[in-house]
Here is the input.
Amino acid sequence: MNTSQLCPKFEKAMSILSQRWTGLVIYQLLSGPQRFCTIESSIGISGRLLSDRLKHLENEGVVKREVFPETPIRIEYSLTEKGKDLRPLMKELEKWSQNWIDSEDTLED
Amino acid sequence: MNTSQLCPKFEKAMSILSQRWTGLVIYQLLSGPQRFCTIESSIGISGRLLSDRLKHLENEGVVKREVFPETPIRIEYSLTEKGKDLRPLMKELEKWSQNWIDSEDTLED
DNA sequence: GTAACTTAATTACTTTTCGTAAGTAAGTGT
DNA sequence: ACACTTACTTACGAAAAGTAATTAAGTTAC
Here is the structure.
């Protein structure tokens, strides 16, 4: 049972951002529209989960999928206005990580 | 294999925030030091996971656990400076959620 | 003094999600 | 024809989450 007393909009926003990989996918797309395999290799997510996350973000209206029927065909993912508006938040997280995360203390590769 | 090209500090910061419940726990503690059961009921997390998350956040230096040997004994959780410095980020998420999350589109209770 | 209650957990068990690897469909390059 | 690339999907074992019951230490109620 969820007996939360928090703002539902805030909770919803947090639920999007707190799903594994989702934040990194958005962050990566802030540098511009990109193809599936580019995102995949830049953040180290598996195809299975990237496919899932992009679909989820598309449903939330954060990410846009565009098919360019060139030859070879090209499929690009980009941020919608809603997605782009997360830039200030990402900037804050960048600042925080620079101020507080010790380089000894990062994730193992 | 993680072949990420992102800043390791940013990745680490994101990995903290993108764990389920962790963001809400921090957000809740921004309103001041609180006891276990207060956090539990305010964000709707189970004791099992709250215990886990608080321990994790204590290890990361974001949360501080203090035992007050009064009668009755009181255990309070609060944010460290590192934790308090996440306030601007939370403010950005609040703003974003107000601007972009439709009230029809919130989580079910 | 013992039975019921509270807090801060922990343990046991089930369900959901993740991660790895392999497979697929459509097309390209040689 | 054959290998290669892209954008996925499927299968399956492993890890994490969710639910509920239990515990330990102390409090209050009678």
